[in-house]
Amino acid sequence: xxxxxxSLIILIVTLASWWVIFNRAGKPGWGSxxxxxNLVLLLKIVEYPLWCLLLLIVPxxxxxxxxxxxxRLGKKFGQSDGFCWGLVVLSPVFLPLxxxxxxxxxxxxxxxxx
Length: 114
Known about the structure:
Layout: H1 2-24, H2 37-45, H3 52-55, H4 61-76, H5 81-89, H6 91-101
Helix pairs in contact: 1-6, 4-5, 5-6
């Protein structure tokens, strides 16, 4: 009984985090819950070309591509390398931190990363 409840809590917190992150980046928050469209918006946020969407549907390659996307997402919000690596390794912990704790973290379109 504890595992389904814990999973539901993690799901709700993660969805809320993505919603806030998308809003801060100037994209519609509801877009974070629409399959495929959320990936298109995420690629626009991190300023990767849309052909990278193809990488996200190839097994094994998708995991590696997603790690690059998460790292670049942290950079786009002006976070340190350590935080970006935390976002890559422990995204269920660091996504809510980015969304709710670091409320002063602003989306920086000019920010460079990987």
